[in-house]
Amino acid sequence: MDTPDTFVHSVHAISIVSFPVQLFTIYCILFETPKAMNSVKWVLLNARIWTVILDLSLTVFTIPFVIFPALAGTPLGILTEWFEVPTSFQTYFVFTNFFIVMVNHFLVVENRYYHLFAKEKAWRHFRKPVIAFDFLVTSTYMIPIMINVPDQMKGKEFIYKQVPSLSSEIKSMELYVLATDYNLFLAELIFMAGFLSIQVFSLILLNRYNILETARKSMLSQQTMMLQRKFLLANYTQIVSFFITCFIPYLYIMICCYLNYHNQSANNFAFICFSCHGVSGASIFLWTYKPYRKVVNAKLRELISFMHCSQRPVVQIHISSAVRVPSLF
What we know:
Blueprint: H1 4-31, H2 38-61, E1 64-66, E2 71-75, H3 78-81, H4 87-118, H5 123-140, H6 143-147, H7 152-162, H8 168-171, E3 176-179, H9 182-216, H10 222-259, H11 264-288, H12 290-310
Antiparallel strand pairs: 1-2, 2-3
Pfam family, one: 7TM_GPCR_Srh
Keywords: Membrane, Receptor, Transmembrane, Transmembrane helix
Protein name: Serpentine Receptor, class H
């Protein structure tokens, strides 16, 4: 697991499984979303598209091979191998895209809050500026880090001393050193994670509070309340999946930097976990939203029926050519 080739093969295998599932999820959102969910349809689609982009960036486009605790690594994807895209741009793209996906999770929760409870409240005046500000911060938080990228020759000398256990194979690669000082990098990541997490969980609590208040006052029918609860629960399950597959590796990275601990197999495994967030999120999405679960079940029944028919044994009838003809003599 610690070699570049093994890592590349692993993430490619994930992409082979993940991409068809992601495409099917997009198909379900576009063509199988019931009219009752039209208000959230395009927000769900936007969130899924950004998830696919992050997925492909980790498994096909960039494939970041990092050597934490050093803030250095090299991309092994097609943007490097085929198109020679600068590593600095790929670094910015991956780190920015990760938090853009998180902003889109916020948008799904916010969409439910606005359409269910806040159309006549003060939030309707602030929602668009807040969303625009979130995208602005997410798109620019990496700029201070990118401006302070060290001289690459000096940076490599620093990381060779910092991580003396690097193999000769890794040392021979075109490593890109993002920083030699953790302080700014960790501060930026902690700020972004906290900034967006507070927003997401605040709206989750607001949705829960308003659902309970609406139920207590009997302002909506029991059936409508049950549908909204199921939808919100499905959405929260997706968010939990995102946090498990992304923030556990994220926490590992910060601990590695803080303790100056290097384990290349663990580094690669952390990014493999990142790469699994798309297929796990899509699977949960398809299973927890009832309209899409019905489509999945129908497609599975069709597939099983097709396979059953194709494997049905063919009965061969042999007709003997020897026909006895009565003799006239």
